[in-house]
Amino acid sequence: MGHRRMAEGGTTRREFLARAALMALSASSVGPARAAAAQAPRRGGTMVVTGHQEISSLSPDDAGPTVHWTAVTQIHNALLELDENYALVPTLAQSYTASPDGLSYTFKLRRGVKFHDGTEFTAEDVKYTYEWYMNPANHAINANNFKDVDAVQAVDRYTVRVRMKQPNAAFPAKGASTFIVPAAYHSRVGEKGYKSAPIGTGAFRLKEWKPAEHTLVQAFDQHFRGRPYLDFFRVDIVPEASVRAIGLQTGTSDSAVWPLLVEDNLRLAKDPNFTTFVTVTTGVNHFPINNKRPIFADKRVRQAMMHAINRQRLIDDIFKGTAVIATSHLSPAFKTYYEPNVTKYPYDPAKARALLDEAGWKPGSDGVREKDGVRLSFTCVTITGDQARRPEAEVAQQDLKAVGIEMKLAEAPVATITEKMHKGEMDASLFNWTYGGGGGDPDPSVTLRSNGGNNWSHYENPKVDSLIDAGLREPDPKKRRPIYSEIQKIVAEDVPFLYIMYWNWYTIFTKRIKGLPKSAFNGPQLYRKAYQWWIG
Amino acid sequence: MRRLHAPGAGLGAAVATRSTATSHRRSEAWRAWRRFTRYRPGVAGLIVVALIGLVAIFANVLAPYSPTAVHPSMRGAGPTLAHPLGYDHVGRDILSRLIYGSRIAIVVAVLATGIAVAIGVAIGTTAGYLGGRVDAVLSRITDALMAFPILVLLIALVAVLGPSLANVILVIGTTAWASYARVVRAEVLSLREQEFVLAARATGATDRRIIWRHLVPNVVGPVIVLATLSVGNIIILEAALSFLGLGVRPPTPDWGGMLADGRAFITIYPQIVIAPGAMIAITVLAFNLLGDGLRDALDPRQRD
Amino acid sequence: MWRYVATRLLQGAAVIFLVATATFLILRLTPGNPIDVLVGEAEVTPEQVAGIKQLWGLDRPWYEQYLTWLGNMARGNFGVSVIRTGVPVGTMLAQAAPVTITLNIAALVASVAIAIPVGILAGIRRYSALDYLGTVGATLGVALPSFWVSLMAIILFAVKLRWLPPFGLHSWSGYILPAAVLATEQTAVLTRMMRGSVASVLHQDYVRTGRAKGLPEAAVVLRHAVRNALLPVITVLGYRMAFLLSGTIIVETVFALPGIGRLLTDSVYHLDYQVVQAIALLLAVIVVVANIATDLVYALVDPRIRIG
Hints:
By secondary structure, chain B is mostly helical. Chain B contains twelve helices and no strands. By secondary structure, chain C is mostly helical. Chain C has two domains: 2-74, no CATH class; 90-301, MetI-like fold (Orthogonal Bundle), CATH 1.10.3720.10. Chain C is flat and about 85 Å long. Chains in contact: A-B, A-C, B-C.
């Protein structure tokens, strides 16, 4: 009954690395907590955050959901890290340069950085980590971050050079932001031993790990940015959203890393006892639809469905206005690459009917349209117990019915949905997913390319394929932008899946947590800054 | 998940009339009815059950709105005169959904109980009467079902069959029979040593005849009681299935599904859960009281 | 007698084998796999996924996996969890079981302490105000959804009164609310069983004989009726072992307790095969042993049932 990886926010590590703020563009933190910012930092205390799902491993290579990442990020650092303003900031690297041809990256490392076991962080650790992930024998989930990497050289103790087989503009955001493990320790205990006893350069070191209960980390005195103010940081696993809200209300916890109910978010955002950051997700809430199914083959049918669904009403009625209508696969949160000038699909049932008529689908005796004896009917499978999205599907069902499309609803566990969608054995589903934007890079090759591993809708467009490839080969951001604009325009025209909305993401802290940034473009990334916070 | 409560206590007392003479049936039934009417709560239970049945039949006349109509911007809004129970988390009229939901509740309760009883009586009677190897095998199958983590079975069925009303009935019916089989077997074990069965056997009656003419009629009493007592549990089980995604398909309203949907919103929109929760509680209570009344009525040791 | 026990134990072993095999097959028949869940939203290629599947031996045909699993079981090895990337299932069970066991024992003690006296009184004074109150209370106890009771308890005792923590096990007081909620339902069921049992026993000959002998009513009730009425209640409690786990799932979820119930649901949803199989097996053993014990008690007490 808990929420699975795609449930609720649909955020996993990848999306996490790719969240940004829309509202934050102007202002961000709500509530009067700002006034207290002048107070002097104080040492001590335990900060408790709650997450929805067990932390099944502490290795940076295990792609857990946000909750997992929140703990892992306290323990580890990367050469470059995305911050809450969505900028890629050198962290374990002091600086880096890319060759103009995009074939090599040189990182100058920070000196005097200590791992939790007291050993010094050097270029060998970077080389070891990257090579470990790249080695096919290790079956690392992170391997794809190092796509197109040819070799990693430790030029000297504090310099690393990464040579590419061909340019891959996504490398800084993906490869270089992968967490570093200590070469000596990791090679001794192996990945298996490392999962439960990780050692990093992070501000906190592991104290206690009970996967389904809590993960406790303790301040690391020799952290390179200085010892954190907090003595302890703890992640408690609380599956029920309403109980997480109660935790905040009673002061049992200081923050929730996984969404509460919309109503609780809105209520706590107005409450002066809390500091709230409202940002927009980079993932898109959408109905993936299997383009290989004959009924979805005609673009006009997919466009008609976009016109048939009253998306603003969904946002207002089900999400209390805490979302933005989607314009394509990429969210406005990803401001550098977002393209607003695309084909739009305002709510227009008449237009939907006209498009369906044009495509040859005529109303049958029961109101459901038919063509050559086939009914315009399909099944949308939502995630079991998905309290946030099922009502959305139920309202969309009514909208589609009004134009003569029958959408039946069913539920299944996540493990079933992902496999059946991959195999093309399911008509449609409903979840949130990041289509490009992972790690701060707009590359959607996994989700929109015809051979993409997570191309849920089985979308195939050779034009899009070649644009995706061109975007990766182009190191210059200025020249990349038009490429990704073009992709967004084609997607908006093709409608490979029914993109509905971009959710607002609420990151809420109790007022006793001090030292929070003034504003944030990206809520979840805030937790990287726990080393700057204190309890007031 | 709610559990089916294992019935059985007090059933020894509910053994039906052992008479096989048809001439006595009518007066026996009349006396049972008089005993039944003497227990007021049982009568109240019967009336409530009948009322719910009527609501289910005339749902389309009684419901003020369509149960699937979404009223814009009314998510979770509280009660008004026009919508006395308020709106659910999608903005639908709760009262109308509740009224239509009674149909599913009654259909599931009656049919699923019917299937469970049929299987349970068949297996229990066969096991109890034939005894020996047959009994051992059937009893172990019953054990295996009770020992099986139903959750695993249900989730697998969700994934394989997909949810539908028929599947809900089928799943509940085929997983809930074990307790009936146990009770019936125990009854038959003692019945088969009774004089009238021994007499029948002595006159050369076949096993099939003995089972159908002498044993089955005599376990009907306890089974009816058990069935009314566990109808409530079946309604609750149906609610549990909704949690697992094996509920009736939306937008068809059913109490279990409404309850499951409302879970997340308890602290914010309590009415979503309270309305179906109260209906389930009332229905379960009514069936239980009816069952108590029947137990007293069918217990021959109760004095007139 | 001993032959009977030996036979039942053998049959019990067969039942356990049946349950274990059925669980295995049903899980493999369920579409989906844990690797997709493991990978989550990470950007991986289909080749990578295939490689990870191979790593966990999930690419092999089901009968090979079945034989490997049987072999492991025979050596007392429960296997490893895919979702927790290699943690032995035995370790996971050892972490989760104490929580569930503590919860159930606390709830059982509380419910027996309440249900037995209330049930006896309701059974003796049938159709009295107390009886009706008991019936209504018991029905509510069964019919009220436990997630509702749980949240109401949290709101009352943790939010309003601030007596107890809303969730978690950072102190022993974390057990109080969930055990109380679990006991509510258990109490309801037990009260009804006790009432019915006492009511029927009161009509038995030995009770009437006791009365006829002129024993005081209290003595009749306590010495004869209650003792005999308890037996079916105890045996039914034995059968209820099968439902032990399912009752704690919701409570463990709402109160954020890391018990077996939550482990089972999470593992089923994620298709973490080895974990589900181990829990199913363990549960089957508990239920089979409880059933045999219950049948023995039945047989010893009820002369109508012959064994052997």
